[in-house]
Amino acid sequence: MLLKIDTQGLYTCGNLNFEFSGTFPYIVNMAITIIKIVVPILLIIFGMLDLGKAVVASKEDEIKKGQQTFIKRVIAAVIVFFVIQIVQIVISFVSNKDPNVVNCFNCFVNADTEKGCIDLAGE
Asked: Is the model's pLDDT at 31 over the cut of 70?
């Protein structure tokens, strides 16, 4: 991940009168990236533990419960993993494709001056 935002600079997004430090989009971007990495890893670990316990127990009921728990965790992980894309779609519908709102969202998700963050020092 190449960071394209100066964390020491002041930014705004679109024509909004909201000024913020470059640290804020950086932190939001890092949190999103960590979630996208950690959720699948935790899914694999907990899924292996659940199914492993069920297999060791050698009971048909335990194996079915382990499978059901694993399926629920997969569904939750998919929802968490794609929440940013879902939010982006909702924002584009709600904002009526207003470039200011969409650019501001992209600024925080991507922490990129080319995708919405306007550098106030560059003006």
From this structure: yes
24 found inside a domain: yes
Check pLDDT > 70 for residue 67: yes
Mean pLDDT across the chain, nearest whole number? 78
Considering the domain boundaries, does residue 40 fall inside one? yes
In a domain, 8, yes or no: no
Residue 96 lies in a domain: yes
Tokens at 107, concatenated: 């600024």
Long-range contacts of 67-75 (CB under 8 A, 24+ apart): 73/43, 73/46, 73/47, 74/43, 74/47
Tell me how far apart the alpha carbons of residues 123 and 103 are, in angstroms, rounded to a whole number.
17
